[in-house]
Amino acid sequence: PSKSFVDELIIHVKGYDEWDNFRSGNTKFTLPDVAIPIVYEARENVLAYDISGDRTYYYVIGIGNYSLGDLVIPESYNDKPVLGIERHAFSGCMTITSVTIPDTMEFMDDHAFYYCENLTSIVIGNGIEILSQGVFNVCTNVSYISIGNNVKIIGGGAFGGCSYVTTVIIP
What we know:
Layout: E1 2-6, E2 8-16, E3 22-30, E4 36-40, E5 48-51, E6 58-62, E7 70-72, E8 76-77, E9 80-85, E10 98-101, E11 107-108, E12 121-124, E13 130-131, E14 144-146, E15 153-154, E16 167-169
């Protein structure tokens, strides 16, 4: 790790506005009179994670500094399994062109990939049993979907607005 000082702080904010609409974006703070020492490790293409309450697994909470178009969710992070994707984790993310969910993944919360307009290919592993409500809603350019063999429930609007789908594979 290296030490540095910042005069500007950019925070990625996710939340709901006063009309209960989901919003996501960066907020920049200028710190002209304050030097904040930070320790960072230059790591590329790392997703943002949170650890479960019992500290036995991680789940993805956002894009982090991941910039590749082909998103492959890893099976583990920091020697613990990655078992899920939080609600709205990738909502509005325009850099994702394909997503692959591993067989070890157990859950994807509502609207996890909502409005990812450049997403064209979805491969869902065998660990997922429920495709939550709106999980890929308004991913308008999706053309290929492969659904794992353990999916038992597809929530309302899971693929709503995916009007260019040409291939769906369901075992």
